TrEMBL record:
Protein name per the record: ATP-dependent dethiobiotin synthetase BioD
Statement: the UniProt record of this protein carries the keyword Nucleotide-binding: yes
Residues given in the record as ATP binding sites: E12, V13, G14, K15, T16, Y17, D54, E116, G117, A118, G119, N176, Q177
Organism: Salinimonas marina
Cofactor: Mg(2+)
Similarity annotation: Belongs to the dethiobiotin synthetase family.
């Protein structure tokens, strides 16, 4: 099994989009895929159960028979920082629970297991637990989704530095188009990141509504 942690330069930069699109692409090539969104904040009630949009998109892309609850064990209602939502709900986030959830999905023996964070890299989970602690425990290589907008250079470079300082490896990064029109001087910004990032550019993701459509440039990302 190959497994990656998917982080991003911020919240709303396309981590879920990339995760789901990669899963659909790999599934179309015959791979068994699973995704894990351990902690999500921002849910609607469906049949009285909190359902998160990211979790649903990742669940929809799974080829293994995992349940939505396994894909996203901690679903918090308000769309706020998860540790604050957890405190509000009286929930304590525990490393052991988040790791156990990962292992449950791994037990389906997918070829690829992707785990999406929430927000950016340095996400607090409360009680001095941080999302990077979970990634370190699982020793996952990291893929950084860079939302290509003004400010992304600083965000991408700081994110890469923090991952490296945590002793983790960066498999690579992807440049994600957040708008139909690319940011001004897209090519120059991309070139700056290609030079300064300590890991390879894996793919450029176009702005495209259909997340289920296999994307040829994502086929070789596992190498
Ligand atoms: N390449 C793209 N083409 C079209 N829409 C995109 C693309 N990337 C992201 N989006 C859209 O932008 C929004 C934010 O993306 P997404 O939900 O993947 O962000 P995120 O980084 O996972 O955020 P969070 O921190 O909440 O998990 C979504 O509505 C998503 O569908
Ligand atoms: C609600 C939102 N869409 C995400 N799920 C959570 C983003 C947390 C960001 C925390 C922060 O860095 O300020
Ligand atoms: Mg997401």
């Amino acid at each position: 099994m190959q497994s990656f942690f998917i982080t991003g330069t911020d919240t709303e930069v396309g981590k879920t989009y990339f995760t789901a699109r990669l899963m659909h692409t790999l599934a179309s090539e015959g791979h068994q895929v699973a995704g894990y969104k351990p902690v999500a904040a921002g849910c609607e009630l469906i049949n009285n159960e909190p359902v998160n949009e990211d979790a649903q998109a990742i669940y929809n892309a799974c080829t293994v028979p995992a349940t939505l609850q396994q894909v996203n064990p901690i679903a918090l209602m308000p769309p706020i920082a998860p540790h604050i939502a957890a405190t509000e709900a009286g929930v304590t986030l525990k490393l052991s629970q988040l790791v156990a959830g990962y292992r449950q999905l791994a037990a389906y023996q997918p070829d690829v297991l992707l785990m999406e964070g929430a927000g950016g890299w340095q996400l607090p989970l409360g009680n001095n637990l941080w999302m990077p602690d979970v990634v370190k425990h699982l020793k996952l290589p990291v893929i950084i989704v860079v939302g290509m907008r003004l400010g992304c250079l600083n965000h991408a470079l700081l994110t890469a530095r923090a991952i490296t300082q945590a002793g983790l490896s960066i498999h690579g990064w992807v440049a994600n188009q957040l708008t139909p029109q690319p940011m001004l001087y897209y090519a120059e910004n991309l070139a700056t990141l290609r030079e300064a990032m300590p890991a390879p550019l894996l793919a450029e993701l176009p702005f495209e509504a259909d997340v289920t459509r296999p994307l040829a440039t994502l086929r070789d990302i596992l190498r």
